Amino acid sequence: MNTEIPGIILMFVAALALAIPLGKYIAKVYTQDKTWLDGIFGPVEKLFYRISGIDPTTEMNWKQHLVVMLTLNMVWFLLGMFVLMNQHWLPLNPDGNPGQSAHLAFNTSISFVVNCNLQHYSGESGVSYLSQLFLMFLQFVSAGIGMAAAAVLFTALKERTTDKLGNFYNFFLKSCTRILLPISLVVAVILVFNGTPMTLHGKDTIISLQGDTVQVSTGPAAAFVAIKHVGTNGGGFFGANAAHPFENPNYLTNITEMIAQLIIPFAIIFALGFFLKRRKFAWITFGVMTIGFLALVIPNIFMEANGNPAIAAMGIDMSSGAMEGKEVRFGAITSAFWSIVTTVISTGSVNSFHDSFMPLSGMNQLLAMMINCFYGGCGVGILNYFIFVILAVFISGLMVGRTPEFMGKKIEAREMKIAMIIALLHPFLILVGTALSTALPAYTSATLNNPGFHGFSEMLYEFTSSAANNGSGFEGLADNTPWWNISTGFVLILSRFLPIIGPIAIAGLLANKKYIPEGGGTLKTDTSTFGLMVLAVILLVAALAFFPALTLGPIAEYFSML
Amino acid sequence: MKNILFQTLKLTLLTLLLFSGIYTLVILFIAQATPGGGKGKKLTQHGITVGYENIGQKFTADRYFNSRPSAVNYNADGSGASNKGPSNAEYLILVKERIDSFLVRNPGISKSEIPVEMVTASGSGLDPDISSSAALIQVKRIAKIRGMNEDKLKSLIIEQKEKSLLGFFGPEKINVLKLNIALDNLN
Predict the structure, then answer these.
(1) Dist CA A205 CA A220 (whole Å)
(2) How many domains in chain B?
(3) pLDDT of residue A33
(4) Average pLDDT for residues A126-130, to the nearest whole number?
(5) Cα–Cα distance, A453 to A553 (Å, whole number)
(6) Are residues B122 and B161 in the same domain?
């Protein structure tokens, strides 16, 4: 009997079942309603505000929100650079790992600040425990930033005319303390009881049963692995990420980590529905995203379960599927499922290695990140989707001859321009980055791990993962070089902040407009017809822009193997 | 502006204390109550530690059940996969060589019985498990070199097989280190 299909169905259904009540809870947190954690975290937050001199009741306009957001991120980035470059003499470095070079520290710090976790180093040898704990801090707060931005969007879409959109500090801190921290605590406890290490001791040396002397890296992993999933960060404590048997010891932890990464991206969609009292819109949104998700994940499951045809031709037993880069305790199907979850929701943690997936499975992983709004990352997924909603409202408004309106606000030229720029930024960064890397073989050709089309895919994947703030990789790429560290570093900055600034600006502009109650002439946005329209826009704008690049990489590789 | 800078700086230090400090200490404290005390569960043989339950070991000797190929040679101070693409010609030659040497080392089995996981490298390079079919095709070799009954080895494999979670979720598997400790204890 196949036990992997029930496994992945369980993970999806359980995440959905937990996400609906969590969505309700998130909506309550952002509307400042009473919740059951007030007693524990209320006093802590009050203390934080008092010491920092912050008044959490001061309402901000959209520009003030963005100023606070960017200042926080700048402080974290500089602090990150300092810790990473000086970790060799700072405390908590039992393995004596060296300080990071300036370009690696630049990339690492940026990549954790922007919720990407690209990781051009390996956890065992590239960072001290102090750095790991600091990066873990960034995993909390970067996820908190994305969620706070979503909260600003929710507030702006209320049925009223205002420029007061809540307080950013309040949204941010509550996202961290009321949502991310409690879930992470639960996940970390499950992990630590299943064998994930949580210790400040350094490497252990053992003599194996066969008589080899080996060293075993360990560390405060359980706490880190929990938030890396809950916050859709994805950076591994160890080099092998969630494929490492310490990070993900068994099928139960695999289920736990899978639910942990899916739950907030799911819940945010329902939170929008509860917050704005538009539950139907939330379900349509979830439906559109799920169609997209299934279209990517189902083919991958088949391709990975069938295995590599070039190896099958050698005449061995292929019943386990494509097992290069995969672990026996998860199997090919669970790994294929994970590979699409982690790319659609921008986690980027892996329980198997994408470089060795079948060519078209790799293409689907790329497409998941190129589209980047089927669920999407913590908070930012819904911002990306919002851009496509604005485009769809405008296009369908023109098609049926109605004024383009969304949630009672007119969409005009200024909003459309911002939406178009943000929608085109993503393909621009990916394609220009890949094109430059291809045009500069002196910097890149020696870093590739595979020849031919697959080598091109490695470069395409690196820029796609950076621009989607995903953080997974075709890990064969030797990416700790000045070229990769600096080029992807800049892509990370642009692709994180512009797609937050754009939607917040649109939302701020919309909030300021006159509210028009729904009438006979209003284009209904909570229907399945409109949902399909959004899906069509996503496919036209996102998927087609990448088709030529995909042809040169995974599609060409696929045909070369026939 | 200066005001915002001070606010963000102070809030950063306080949240740093909460998320890097207190959160870490809480989990560290809870870890003390787990088997292994947060340091990972170790296995012993005749009172001597021979490794971690979760960390796979290199088993290449004929008298042991062999583990999967590893891109990091089972050195657990690092971890990782081969990252070879599916159409990479050099990689496919390597797989073919692994199949050939598997056949040489395990006389009496046919090529079509070799499970693909025994000739492909794992994701972590530290995969602690193999499938039961991967263990079963090694029985002939081990029985011969240890002078043991094949049926005894087969029942050992059945005994060591770990069922799916609740019988429904995830693949069945065998922990190679545990299997080999039990194998040594049989003699």
Answers:
(1) 18
(2) 2
(3) 86
(4) 94
(5) 5
(6) yes
Ramachandran bin of A357, using left for φ above 0, alpha for ψ from -120 to 50, beta for the remaining angles: beta
Q: Take residue A523 and report the two structure tokens written for it.
A: 């284009």
Taking only the tens place, the pLDDT of each residue in B138-155 is: 999 999 999 999 999 999
Using the Cβ of A8 and the Cβ atoms of chain B, whether some distance falls under 8 Å is answered with: no
In this structure, are B98 and B169 located in the same domain? yes
The total of other beta-carbon atoms located within 10 Å of residue B164's CB is 17
The answer to whether A82 contacts chain B (CB < 8 Å) is no
The owner of tokens 């409202």 is: A393
Write down the ipTM of this complex. Answer: 0.95
- B interface test, pick of A327, A448, A475, A558 with most B CB neighbours within 10 Å: A327
Q: What angle do helix axes A413-439 and A452-467 make, rounded to 10 degrees? A: 140
What's the pLDDT at B118? 96
Distance separating alpha carbons of residues B76 and A167, to the nearest angstrom: 47
Q: Which of residues 455-494 of A touch B (CB under 8 A)?
A: 457, 474-476
- Establish if A254 touches chain B: CB-CB under 8 angstroms: yes
Judged by a CB distance cut-off of 8 A, whether residue A276 touches chain B is no
Is B45 part of any domain?
Answer: no
Q: Which of A46, A192, A324 to mutate to test the interface with B (most CBs of B within 10 A)?
A: A324
> Min CA distance, A280 vs chain B (Å)?
33
Residues 99-158 of B with CB under 8 A from A: 99, 111-117, 119-131, 133
- Cα–Cα distance between A543 and A352 in angstroms, integer? 25
Residue B128 lies in a domain: yes
- Do residue B34 and residue B72 come from a single domain? no
Domain that holds residue B57: 53-186
What SS3 state is found at A453?
helix
Tokens of A195: 């064998």
The number of residues making up chain B comes to 187
Q: What is the pLDDT of residue B1?
A: 66
Q: Which of A67, A209, A333, A335 to mutate to test the interface with B (most CBs of B within 10 A)?
A: A209
Statement to judge: residues B94 and B7 lie in one domain: no
| Contact of A396 with A406, CB cutoff 8 Å | no
- Same domain for B116 and B91, yes or no, is yes
Residues B24 and B68 in one domain: no
Q: Using the beta-carbon criterion (under 8 Å), do B23 and A181 form an inter-chain contact?
A: yes
pLDDT tens for B59-86 read: 999 999 999 999 999 999 999 999 999 9
C-alpha span between A186 and A197 (Å, rounded): 15
Residue A53: which of B6, B74, B181 has the nearest Cβ?
B6
Q: How far, in Å, CA of A181 to CA of A501, rounded? A: 26
Asked if A231 reaches chain B (Cβ–Cβ under 8 Å), the answer is no
Cβ count within 10 A of residue A143? 27
- Do residue B95 and residue B177 come from a single domain? yes
Residues 148-207 of A with CB under 8 A from B: 169, 173, 176-177, 181, 184-185, 188-189, 192-193, 195, 197-201, 203-204, 206-207
- Confirm whether B48 is domain-assigned: no
Instruction: Quote the CA–CA distance of A459 and A115 in Å, as a whole number.
Output: 21
**Claim to verify: residue B4 and residue B61 sit in the same structural domain:** no
